[in-house]
Amino acid sequence: MLKKFIYYFPAISFFILMIWLSYIFGISSMENTAFIVEFLFILAGFLLSKKLIVGSFIGIIPAIGFILAGQNSKTGLETPIGIFVLIYFLLCIYLVHKSN
To answer: Are 71 and 79 in contact (CB under 8 A)?
Structure first.
């Protein structure tokens, strides 16, 4: 059970961050891309829990988006987050491949 829960870690952590930020700044401050990223993380977690490696590739899409967004911003805060998420989904590929 815990192994399947670990695949939803980015979706849960990003959802908690979205709730916290929408509480502070209001729901109208949330961009549509945040909801798309959350949907992709949930879809990736669902597919990974079904032991499908394609779920990791779906999760890598927002990670690359975070890395590229960090390259274009002045602070670059998104880049380390994107690298962490990218490494996480690469490890998920290894775990799913090892369990199959």
So the answer is: yes
8 class by beta-carbon count within 10 Å (0-12 exposed, 13-18 middle, 19+ buried): middle
Q: How many CB atoms are closer than 10 A to CB 59?
A: 28
Residue 14 is encoded by which pair of tokens? 């990003």
Q: Which two tokens stand for residue 91?
A: 């490890």
In a structure prediction context, what are the per-residue pLDDT tens digits for the chain, which is 100 residues long? 567 889 999 999 999 988 898 888 877 767 888 889 999 999 999 999 999 999 999 999 999 999 999 988 888 888 999 999 999 999 999 999 998 8
Q: How far apart are the C-alpha atoms of 83 and 74, rounded to whole Å?
A: 17
DSSP class of residue 77 equals T
Amino acid residing at 27: I
- Residue 86 and residue 65 in contact, taking contact as beta carbons nearer than 8 Å: no
